[in-house]
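Appendix B.2, paired examples.
Example (i):
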Amino acid sequence: MLWAGRSAIEIATAVRQGEVTAVTVVEEHLRVIAEREPRIEAFRLVREQVVEEAQALQKRRDLAELPLAGVPVAVKDNLEVAGEPTRHGSAASPDTPATGDHETVARLRAAGALVIGLTNLPELGLVAVGDSAYGIVRNPWNHERTAGGSSSGGAAAVAAGMVPLALGNDGLGSLRIPGAACGVLAVKPGTGLVPAPAQDWDGLTENGPIATTAADLALALSVLAADPSLAEAWRTGRRTDPSPPMLRSVWADDAEVWQPQPPPPGPEPFDLRVAYAPQPLPAGLPVDKEFQAAVRAAAETLRVAGHTVVEHDRKLPTWLGPATVATWLRQAALTAGGLDRDRLERRTRSLARAGRALAAVRADGSRGRERWRAYGADQWFDNADALVMPVLATVPPRAERWGERGLLRNLLVNVRFAPGAGPWNMCGWPALTVPVATHSGGLPIGVQLVAPPGGEPHLLGLAAQLQAAHPLVRPPGYA
């Protein structure tokens, strides 16, 4: 296996330079998926026609100008891929093939990526665990544990080396939670940077990439955002003109084309004011001691890298948690509306029913969200350039059929698992997860980096510095 497990940048560089064909790359990844998928259940659909698409890509006259040339990409099954049904993890969804690609999928294809499959997610993307009618997505680090959710299959597929990149989305943590659970990187962009999915949860949901390196994450985000200045942000912590091998023509038809060159090493030093909060949750929501230690270790790494690092000892406001839960339940009711109730899971029906009940008494979280967006987030953040905090509060729950259980058990498992992710959707700020340690139980530990609007370059640069000090480790058996 020569190319499976390589980074997206390595694959694309080799395809552009003729060292390997896109056909060889996708055929090898298909073999790896066939071998590893039965253990993980990351995919609802593996697209065998991707081989023909790779053959067509290989004939493109602009192959040497494509930043993602020949890179296999997995797409979350709530984003349209032309010719394939979009099932949203639900048996109640229509099986009509999509007539076109979602804009983010179209941008990846235009940059040379090849869609190798559609990944599993919990029904309608409503929860932070990975089970649905199409399978139970298992964590590559421990098959008895969930991969997280709702971008479950994408994170698991990247962690297991089945693809170098995945496209998912994040409504209340749905990229960062599985990214942290599976030990890979994932970024939720700030509001408006990347085209959102059709069901964007009143602006809460953002599409974003999952990868194994900060450089790959920056490259994929730059393509999704149609912003080449983000491609090198992992190296510098700021937007810059694209340097080789980035090719400006992919993002703007009338812009100058860069010729491919080997990328220089990085990241480079830069200086930010970074706050860290090992236990930012209000009373009643404890954070695992090892997760707290990982935040402190990440903060020390960034201090050594040259940043001004200060401890943030405030707690997230107590009213924000109930507002976030109410917002979640309201979206469950809205998303499930119009679907055949008899074909929905018990979990979805109960979440939607609770959301309708709260909406009837005007307790839908909207006032708390507006309060947090208007001044709460900025005041709590305390004028730092970036914040380091836990993604998860506990190790991932067991990989079970949670969809067959009722409201209370699902509320408890989700709230206890990852209560620190949703606040940043509530205000639309960018946030990212990067793995930095391994728990004593054998699972990875990711920390969450958060920045004010426009701070994606800071997050990518900090992630690269953390990754340089804490290199990615593959799950046992998936190297």
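Example (ii):
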Amino acid sequence: MPPAHPFDDDKLREECGVFGVVGVKDAANFVALGLHALQHRGQEAGGIVSHDPEQGFNSARRFGYVRDNFTKQSLMETLPGPLAIGHVRYSTAGSKGNTAIRDVQPFFGEFSMGGAAIAHNGNLTNANSLRRELIERGSIFQSSSDSECIIHLMARSLQQNVPERIKDALRRVEGAFSVVAMTRTKLIGVRDPLGVRPLVIGRIGEDGWVLSSETCALDIIGAEFIRDVDPGEMVVIEHGLLKSHRPFEPAKPRFCIFEQVYFSRPDSILMGRSVYETRRQIGIELARESAVDADIVCPVPDSGTPAAIGFSHESGIPYGMGIIRNQYMGRTFIEPTEQIRNMGVRLKLNVNRALIKGKRVILVDDSVVRGTTSRKIKDMILDAGAAEVHFRIASPPTAWPCFYGVDTPDRDKLLAARMSEDEMRDYLGVDSLKFISLDGLYRAAGEAEGRSKSCPQFCDACFSGEYPVEPRDMVEKGFQLKAAE
């Protein structure tokens, strides 16, 4: 199967989104709509499990976009019932780029008290050691996904109901997890004690409830946003009632700050804050920290747009759409032969020459990962006649890989792990390059005093190298953690 982004492998990618609905007729239809709104979190594959009192559990798992699979009446009719959960995937743990259908969630298991399905957003940092232990004790794994460990741990629990078995299982795992699960009658949501990945609660109709990775997926089905699932909280919804449990030891939350920078949709609300407003504020902080004389501020679409608007507002330099995105560049556009690959980002982005020619241009982008795409965009801007090119980046240098549910290159592939800011500027061939500071990013995210050095308010390991949960599996493989200062 071709990669989801054959012409742009230079972005970090969230690996999945989860969605669940209970208490509505044909819940799977609502789940399909919710997954469509969460498609930015994973474009490789998707799956839905539903339960109907008469027909029992049913599931469908497909490669590709939600719109190409879960909009077909013939398929949706096989997923009846008032309770369903779903998952969209971009692989992190498991067989990257070569996913088997058995790796596509939700995963389903039959237990002594009945069946249960589970969908997981995040990444378990002790999955390898758990898998070895479970295999030694007789478990037979069907997939390469770390999430399957949760099902096997549930199967080995001695608890008498599924919610208690989920608690048992999740107390054994380490890392990041936002989980949506279901039994024959219950919809269940859980976040890890640090709350690294998002999960929100919504209401729909008189008796319906929704669990979702982001609030934008509530909007598409007309659901009312109620609140976030708290870090370390489990919610169990049955017969129209929601009950809250606290199965883990309390911990200081460390929500992933890159959700604010890039992963989440700008129309979502995260931890009580508008993603769009945070990104606009990032642009304001960038302009304060790294002013430069220029004629125009241009976003690298689409993720750089809110920050570019903020930069323009604060600096007083006009905002312009200097780069236009081809909205119809899909995964099946053309087989990416070497000749087509050489066209690079030109298949996705085109320069607005009339606006750029002769101008000193500030380009605002969300991040620099490998730097390959940034170089191509710079070349396009210069080819269009720009007098100068200045990059302003709406995140600090990405110098460390993420082990909590993000597809990140190995550390030696990250430009910021190998070069200083000045060296990156020379490598990209631009007139200036500036990243927002960690403190500036924290201020933009609502922390007026910046980043607390003793206990950071967010997970920022991809910038700082400070991992709130030790990535045990990767350390076993030889990954070198940052030396204590």
